[in-house]
């Protein structure tokens, strides 16, 4: 009787802990339920990836070669915290059109106006983000592209884009200057990543320094004093056992559950043995259950 009673207490306790920690354990299986956010990265060789959990982080590199099961379990807006359907960038539709962290100047930095004291959605937030050092850079993921990021996001931004090399062109004091530099160069070089070529590791061999010098003539006059002459090319290596030969995108909730062997991680994508790829950042705000042995 005593043993049965103690077992009952133990069972209730472990059920409570597993439920509220987001973790479940079955025989030879670990299961976590979490709200997806983009994976945190550490710039090592290769890049180290960590998936955010309610109780900590899951080191994704340790799961290479293992069978993973991903199951859609709902939504959680990263701004308001409500279980509303995700519209874009981890936010529900209402928050997407109201929250300052997804203003149009994020995607189009040339629209930044905090340096003029003009508010878009929240001037204090916009001044905090826009009025800090920014980089205009070249990144080579599948082909060379131009982009903008905050200096504090180097090299995180390049890793998230799946670039294998990158080079700074300008270091400017605010987002607006980086933005007008990007607009000027977009007429001569792409500002998009070909994600399919990036994920199949179809690389373009180029000399970034030569391209950089060739593009200098197209930069706006007010940015030229910030041109970075002597900076090294940054190289990135990803944890991939085998690249897919073609890619099939896993999109939730169109597909509610998927199982496959994890063969690599590049950018913010999980790469599986059957050529399926899963964009973690593209599913921010999705509640997903992840299981592995």
Q: Estimate what percentage of residues fall within beta strands.
A: 25-35%
Straight-line N-to-C gap: 35 Å
Number of strands: 17
Low-confidence sequence ranges: 1-21
- Order of strands, main sheet, comes to 1-2-17-6-14-15-16-13
* Main structural class: alpha+beta
Question: Average pLDDT value?
Answer: 92
Largest β sheet strand count, sense and barrel closure? 8 strands, mixed
How would the blueprint of this fold be written?
Elements: H1 2-21, E1 23-26, E2 29-35, E3 40-42, E4 48-53, E5 56-59, E6 67-75, E7 86-88, E8 91-92, H2 93-96, H3 104-107, H4 123-130, E9 134-140, E10 144-150, H5 156-160, E11 165-172, H6 175-186, H7 195-199, H8 208-215, E12 234-235, E13 248-249, E14 257-266, E15 269-272, E16 276-279, E17 286-292
Parallel strand pairs: 13-16
Antiparallel strand pairs: 1-2, 2-17, 3-4, 4-5, 6-14, 6-17, 7-8, 9-10, 9-11, 11-12, 14-15, 15-16
């Amino acid at each position: 009787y005593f043993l049965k009673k103690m077992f009952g207490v133990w069972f209730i306790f472990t059920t409570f802990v597993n439920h509220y920690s987001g973790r479940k354990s079955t025989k030879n299986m670990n299961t976590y339920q979490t709200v997806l956010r983009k994976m945190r990265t550490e710039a090592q060789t290769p890049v180290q990836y960590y998936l955010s959990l309610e109780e900590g982080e899951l080191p994704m590199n340790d799961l290479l070669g293992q069978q993973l099961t991903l199951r859609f379990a709902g939504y959680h807006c990263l701004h308001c915290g409500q279980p509303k359907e995700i519209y874009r960038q981890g936010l529900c539709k209402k928050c997407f059109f109201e929250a300052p962290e997804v203003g149009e100047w994020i995607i189009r930095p040339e629209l930044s106006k905090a340096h003029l004291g003009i508010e878009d959605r929240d001037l204090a937030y916009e001044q905090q983000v826009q009025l800090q050092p920014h980089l205009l850079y070249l990144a080579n993921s599948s082909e060379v592209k131009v982009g903008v990021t905050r200096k504090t996001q180097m090299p995180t931004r390049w890793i998230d884009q799946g670039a294998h090399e990158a080079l700074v062109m300008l270091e400017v004091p605010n987002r607006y200057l980086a933005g007008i530099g990007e607009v000027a160069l977009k007429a001569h070089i792409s500002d998009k990543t070909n994600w399919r070529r990036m994920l199949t590791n179809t690389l373009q061999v180029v000399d970034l320094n030569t391209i950089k010098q060739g593009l200098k003539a197209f930069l706006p006059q007010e940015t030229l004093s910030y041109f970075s002459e002597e900076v090294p090319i940054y190289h990135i290596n990803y944890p991939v056992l085998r690249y897919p030969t073609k890619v099939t995108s896993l999109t939730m909730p169109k597909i509610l559950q998927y199982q496959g062997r994890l063969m690599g991680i590049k950018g913010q994508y999980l790469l599986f043995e059957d050529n399926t790829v899963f964009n973690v950042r593209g599913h921010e705000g999705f509640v997903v259950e992840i299981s592995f042995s």
